[in-house]
Design a protein that fits this description.
about 170 residues, elongated, Umud Fragment, subunit A, about 20% helix, Pept_S26A_signal_pept_1_Lys-AS, 4-stranded antiparallel beta sheet
Length: about 170
């Protein structure tokens, strides 16, 4: 009977430690998300599973082209975490016209787009402490061109890699 109780206690401790580690890792280091929409097609497919870095990305500035997870800005009408690509950085002047994104007067190359945007937006200057994000599926993405800037404090992480499905496993380009 004593051996039986010891085994139960050991398993109980093991389960608690595993749960605490899992909770700590997901809360502070990395997290995962399943992508429920097609706003990032063709880069991210429906139901792709992504791993996000929640800590180490803060060691260097976010770059144009980074794919981030963030809390939807107030007034956006969105209630879930979102995944989009950073297009505009703090201080940039951004405009969408002629099917292209123009940053500080120059058209940028966007080889990841599903199709050119069929709307016009801006010109608008991005304030300090904020980013402008778009989906790669520009014409079917509810993003900054609809609800505005993402405050830096809303950014929860940067995509590290896609882990599912296995045939597309790896870093997102």
């Amino acid at each position: 009977m004593k051996k039986y109780l010891r085994t139960i206690l050991e398993w109980g401790i093991l389960i608690v430690v595993a749960w605490v580690l899992s909770f700590g890792i997901r809360t502070y280091l990395i997290d995962t998300r399943i992508v429920p929409t097609g706003s990032m097609l063709p880069t991210i497919q429906l139901q792709d599973r992504l791993i996000f870095d929640k800590v180490f990305y803060k060691n260097k500035p976010l770059q144009r082209g980074d794919i981030i997870m963030f809390t939807a800005p107030e007034g956006s009408g969105e209630h879930d975490d979102l995944v989009k690509r950073i297009i505009g950085l703090p201080g940039d002047t951004l405009e969408v016209r002629e099917g292209k994104v123009w940053i500080n007067g120059e058209a940028i190359e966007e080889p990841y787009l599903k199709e050119a945007p069929e709307y016009e937006y801006g010109p608008i200057q991005i304030p300090e402490g904020a980013y402008l994000v778009f989906g790669d599926n520009r014409n079917n993405s509810k993003d900054s061109h609809v609800w505005g800037f993402v405050p830096e404090e809303n950014i929860e992480g940067k995509v590290l890699l896609r882990y599912w499905p296995l045939e597309r496993w790896g870093a997102l380009k």
